[in-house]
Every structure is written in structure tokens, then in C-alpha cells.
């Protein structure tokens, strides 16, 4: 799955061949079809597993804290870690290769994404009800999605910059929370 995510991100879904996928994991191209019916099934599996993993990580992070501001901070931190860490390539595939899925596969992935997004909207909605957030939770989430996703293009902690915690603090400060 990790190699498929890397290839789909680097080459694009359309330009990645089954032969490329098989070579990346050291098997014959026909052997892939023992595990997946089609190349699209591999793409969908990358997306589904990424959403499931990140949803589980976010649920655990939210459950570990009580205050809505801390819940939001936990969501921001986990998403930044996902984008810039172990599932970053797969997260990029989710964004850029979405339209490569068939309508049925898109519907399946959307159901999982709705669960993921509901975590965010619940926390943001609570902050709005408390008067801590002035903007519409849906709009805030969409803005955060774009801003957090874009960090993969410029965030380089190995260059002595911000840690993920420091970057999370900056996001929270930006929202005045």
C-alpha cells in the first residue's frame, strides 16, 4: 500500500502501470491480481486504509482530552502529522487522484470521509456554540483542509524549523484559539 501510494503520488494514477506497482514490491505483475481485481482497487484500498487509519488516530486524540479547544488542537496536530508523516503520500493521493475512482468507489470513500469530517465539524460546532469560533464550522474546516494539506510543500522540520507541536500552536493562534 505504501509503495502504491508513493507511485500514485509521484507518477499519477494514470501513468502508474501494474508492472510499476509489482516491481516496487518485488513480485510479478500478475501476482498483484491475486490480491486486487484491478488497478483501481489498489487505488481505492490506499484511500480507504488511509482514511480509516487517520480517523482512528483522530478519534483517539479527541477522546484523550476534554476541552473543545484541546480537541481542536488534537485534530490539527494529528492531521499535520498524517500529512507530513507516515501517510503523507496517501493523503496526497486522496486529494489529487480522487477523480480516478469510479462513481461506486467514490461513494464508498465518501462515506468514510464523512465520518472523518464529522469529527472536525462536531468540535468546530461546539466551539462556535461556546462563542469561541466566529466563522461557520464548515467554512473553517474547508479552510483548514487546504491550509494543513499545503504544509507538505513548505514545512521542513529537519531544517531546524518548527516542530509539529510548534506548527500546531501557530495554527491555533491563527484562529485565535
Keywords for this entry:
177 residues; 68% helix; Tetracycline Repressor, domain 2; 8 helices; mainly alpha
Topology:
Blueprint: H1 2-11, H2 18-25, H3 39-63, H4 68-84, H5 88-96, H6 103-129, H7 137-150, H8 164-174
Structure explained in plain terms:
The protein starts with a helix and ends with a helix. By secondary structure, it is mainly alpha-helical. It has one domain (40-174): Tetracycline Repressor, domain 2, CATH 1.10.357.10. Helix 4 crosses helix 5. It is elongated, with a radius of gyration of 18 Å. Helix content is 68%, strand content 0%. The longest helix has 27 residues, at 103-129. The protein contains 8 helices and no strands. The model has no long low-confidence stretch (mean pLDDT 92).
Q: In summary, what is this structure?
A:
The chain is mainly alpha-helical.
Which residues form runs of ≥5 with pLDDT under 50? none
CATH-wise, what's the superfamily?
Answer: Tetracycline Repressor, domain 2
Number of domains: 1
**Spatial shape:** elongated
Q: How far is it from the N-terminal to the C-terminal residue, by CA?
A: 37 Å
* Average residue pLDDT: 92
Level-1 CATH class name: Mainly Alpha
**Proportion in helices:** 55-70%
Order of helices and strands: HHHHHHHH
What fraction of the residues are assigned to beta strands by DSSP?
under 5%
Amino acid at each position: 500500500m505504501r509503495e502504491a501510494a508513493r507511485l500514485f503520488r509521484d507518477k499519477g494514477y494514470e501513468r502508474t502501470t501494474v508492472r510499476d506497482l509489482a516491481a516496487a514490491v518485488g513480485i510479478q505483475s500478475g501476482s498483484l491480481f491475486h490480491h486486487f481485481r484491478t488497478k483501481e482497487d489498489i487505488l481505492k484500498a490506499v484511500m480507504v486504509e488511509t482514511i480509516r487509519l487517520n480517523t482512528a488516530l483522530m478519534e483517539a486524540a479527541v477522546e484523550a482530552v476534554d476541552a473543545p479547544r484541546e480537541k481542536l488542537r488534537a485534530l490539527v496536530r494529528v492531521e499535520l502529522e498524517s500529512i507530513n508523516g507516515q501517510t503523507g503520500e496517501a493523503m496526497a493521493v486522496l486529494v489529487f487522484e480522487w477523480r480516478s475512482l469510479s462513481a461506486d468507489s467514490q461513494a464508498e470513500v465518501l462515506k468514510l470521509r464523512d465520518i472523518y469530517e464529522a469529527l472536525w465539524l462536531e468540535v468546530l460546532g461546539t466551539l462556535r456554540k461556546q462563542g469561541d469560533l466566529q466563522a461557520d464550522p464548515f467554512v473553517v474546516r474547508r479552510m483548514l483542509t487546504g491550509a494543513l494539506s499545503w504544509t507538505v510543500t513548505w514545512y521542513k522540520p529537519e531544517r531546524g524549523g518548527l516542530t509539529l507541536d510548534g506548527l500546531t500552536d501557530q495554527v491555533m493562534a491563527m484562529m485565535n484559539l
